[in-house]
Amino acid sequence: MTTPTPAAPAARDYIHIAAEEAFAPSEMLRIYRRILDGPNPDPGFVSLLGFYMRSQSERARFIMEGLQDLGERRLRHMDESGIDRAIIALTAPGVQVMDTATAVSFARSANDELAEAVRRHPTRFSGMVAVAPQDPAAAAREVERGITRLGLTGVIINSHTQGEYLSDPKFWEIFEAAEANDTPIYLHPNTPPASMIAPFLECGLDGAIYGFGVETGLHALRIITAGVFDRFPRLQMVLGHMGEALPFWAYRLDYMHAATVRSQRYASMQPLRRKPSDYLRENFYITSSGMAHEPAIRFTQEMMGAERVMYAADYPYQHTVDEIARLEGMDIGREDKRRFFQANAETAFRLK
């Protein structure tokens, strides 16, 4: 039975939409266990899911239970936090750590499961399409199926796929499919790949505390500087965690990109039609997931435009019951607050 949306307080005329909320089907966790028990599992995968799946700490248990629930537990936590609607996606690293055949098959299964949860709770849940970049053609087909047949909205890609990045043109069928279906790609963090993780692991900085942002910000910059948005100008992407810090780097990115192009230092860095910050402002939305900090939100609204910044909770990895109440107290205008909590998510994800 569908749980009704909680009535909005009289003081506001908008709802609270959380745009980066995670889930993990039980079958995916069984696949993960086989990978962890196999030869030479990826060190970032071992550090991330290996820990959460094996630890008996209170935090680990809360996260694993929350990831597997697409029903009453999740709805109860949404109600406690004041979240009216959640946009849910397959947790990192999704299918991207699997072999190609398993990844393609399981992405379909996960999307079917999520679509069924959305059908059960149509006013509370929306969902993003998981794809297997290991097979770009299959991923492009799954984008179309997920959007046109399953009623999902948005595409989730958990950053690198076994050390490979979407800046490689072999993956650009996925961008083409997202642009054709008028749906955004959420570039969600993953732990750094094996080629760069060692300095993060040795001091415990490989995860959400820092490594996620470094790796995913790098990925987004690779996409920009590879000319993806010159090739696909209508493509929209989403970055969480206050844009993985890229809005704060915008001035330096513009200056040093232009200087590097002029120097002809790297064959891989060629002129673009616009500045890197222009692509950030016009081809990206930013969410506040994990960054419920008013100064950061206000700066990003100023840099990106208030129509490009939206709320996310990052459940179940972050679950702070008073977070929305605190953010409702931000010193920003009422219309910008409505954009932040509702309108921008509706626009970005084509919510009805």
Short description:
The chain has 352 residues and is α/β, with parallel strands linked by helices.
Walk me through the structure.
The protein is of the alpha/beta class and 352 residues long. The protein has a single domain (17-348), classed as Metal-dependent hydrolases (TIM Barrel), CATH 3.20.20.140. The protein is built from 16 helices and nine strands. The chain has helices at 26-37, 43-54, 58-67, 72-81, 100-120, 136-148, 172-180, 198-201, 211-225, 228-231, 241-244, 250-263, 276-283, 294-304, 323-328, 334-348, and strands spanning 17-23, 85-90, 125-127, 129-130, 155-157, 185-187, 237-239, 284-287, 309-310. The chain has a six-stranded parallel beta sheet with strand order 4-5-6-7-8-9. The longest helix is centred in the first third of the chain and has 21 residues, at 100-120. The protein starts with 16 loop residues before the first strand and ends with a helix.
Run of helices and strands: EHHHHEHEEHEHEHHHEHHHEHEHH
Kindly estimate the percentage of residues that lie in beta strands according to DSSP.
Answer: 5-15%
Tell me roughly what share of residues is in helical segments.
40-55%
Mean pLDDT: 96
Total strands? 9
| Tally of contiguous helical segments | 16
Shape, per Cα inertia axes: globular
Distance between the termini: 21 Å
Radius of gyration: 19 Å
- Total tally of structural domains: 1
Strand order of the largest sheet: 4-5-6-7-8-9
Summarize the biggest pleated sheet: 6 strands, parallel
